[in-house]
């Protein structure tokens, strides 16, 4: 994940978290510096074990400094208590600030975590529902509610530039909201260790102008276009025979529910939950070598002849 995504915010739900992070980082650095300085001063203090070893002096029992030591401990404890209470108050204030959006959410999106990908379900203004995968689109300048759950184990949803972390728990729906100040693409990640491919469980949030988002929503809600030529038609048949049990492509016989919806696969930037760029070559590589690219995933390697691979690729290219 690029460092800039962590150090900068692009929306009102992330700004308070970023400031809190910088404040806590400064507090930790300050504490470390203070401890180091006090340690050096104690080592250089006349009568200390280090000072005696340097000068060759013998140990002398002297209890006159006990009261000074107790005073230093008391002052340090008081300062630590004040700082920790201040940090607690700051964290509670940030939690309150980001708990709810400043105005009603313009859109509600259901995000379900799987090992190891994200299902994203939209409901259009007309009431139609469709699903995509590993990519959340939202309009700029509008809060969007994210309803989080999990289909298997505990995951954690985090898009650093737009919001803090929220866990996705089986049997429970947690809520978060995202809002982007301007158009852009931001990476998200599962941050709760969830198995062998935890590191390859990413997603992207694509913020668009309201007009562009409305157009994207309209296109995504449509079924897949029919095959345009004989090769693509044969590719659709191969998909129906090899992949339809797990994947859905709306407008075809494929209606599987265990894997990502591929109705508009070719319109996405990445595949395999952010592991590969979405190109024709990478799509075929993923189909043929999923267990090499992402060992342990539920996607099996699919053996195809060169001719079948060509036709399947021709059809997948049409899923715009």
TrEMBL record:
Gene3D superfamilies xref list: Cupredoxins - blue copper proteins (2.60.40.420)
Lipid bilayer topology: Multi-pass membrane protein
Keyword Iron-sulfur: no
Broad class of where this protein is predominantly found: membrane
Pfam families with a match to the protein in the record: COX2, Cytochrom_C
Transmembrane segments: 20-42, 72-96
Alphabetically ordered keywords of this record: Copper, Electron transport, Heme, Iron, Membrane, Metal-binding, Respiratory chain, Transmembrane, Transmembrane helix, Transport
Location of the Cytochrome oxidase subunit II copper A binding domain: 104-219
InterPro entries (UniProt xref): CcO_II (IPR045187), CcO_II-like_C (IPR002429), Copper_CuA (IPR001505), Cupredoxin (IPR008972), CuRO_CcO_Caa3_II (IPR034236), Cyt_c-like_dom (IPR009056), Cyt_c_oxidase_su2 (IPR014222)
Domain Cytochrome c: 230-320
Subcellular location: Membrane; Periplasm
Reaction catalysed by this enzyme: 4 Fe(II)-[cytochrome c] + O2 + 8 H(+)(in) = 4 Fe(III)-[cytochrome c] + 2 H2O + 4 H(+)(out)
Similarity annotation: Belongs to the cytochrome c oxidase subunit 2 family.
Function description: Subunits I and II form the functional core of the enzyme complex. Electrons originating in cytochrome c are transferred via heme a and Cu(A) to the binuclear center formed by heme a3 and Cu(B).
Protein name, as recorded: Cytochrome aa3 subunit 2
Species this protein is from: Paraburkholderia tropica
């Amino acid at each position: 994940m690029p460092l800039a995504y962590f150090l900068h915010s692009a929306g009102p739900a992330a700004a308070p978290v970023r400031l809190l992070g910088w404040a806590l980082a400064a507090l930790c650095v300050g504490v470390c510096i203070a401890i180091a300085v006090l340690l050096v001063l104690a080592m250089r203090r006349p009568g200390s074990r280090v000072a005696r070893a340097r000068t060759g002096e013998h140990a002398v029992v002297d209890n006159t400094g006990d009261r000074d030591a107790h005073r230093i401990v008391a002052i340090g404890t008081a300062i630590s208590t004040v700082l920790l209470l201040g940090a607690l108050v700051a964290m509670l204030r940030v939690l309150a600030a980001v708990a709810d959006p400043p105005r009603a959410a313009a859109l509600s999106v259901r995000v379900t975590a799987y090992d190891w990908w994200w299902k994203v379900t939209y409901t259009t203004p007309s009431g139609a529902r469709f699903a995509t995968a590993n990519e959340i689109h939202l309009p700029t300048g509008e809060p969007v509610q994210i309803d989080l759950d999990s289909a298997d184990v505990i995951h954690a949803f985090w898009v650093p530039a737009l919001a803090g972390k929220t866990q996705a728990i089986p049997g429970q729906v947690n809520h978060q909201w995202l809002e982007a100040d301007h158009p852009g693409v931001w990476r998200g990640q599962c941050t709760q260790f969830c198995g062998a491919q935890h590191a390859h469980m990413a997603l992207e949030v694509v913020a668009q102008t309201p007009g562009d988002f409305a157009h994207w929503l309209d296109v995504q809600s449509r079924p897949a276009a029919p095959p345009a030529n004989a090769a693509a038609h044969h590719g659709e048949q191969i998909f129906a025979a090899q992949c339809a049990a797990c994947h859905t492509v709306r407008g075809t016989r494929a209606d599987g529910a265990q894997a990502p919806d591929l109705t508009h696969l070719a319109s996405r930037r990445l595949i395999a939950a952010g592991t590969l760029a979405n190109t024709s070559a990478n799509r075929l590589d993923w189909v043929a070598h999923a267990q090499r690219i992402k060992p342990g995933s539920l996607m099996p390697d699919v053996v195809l002849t060169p001719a079948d691979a060509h036709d399947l690729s021709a059809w997948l290219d049409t899923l715009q």
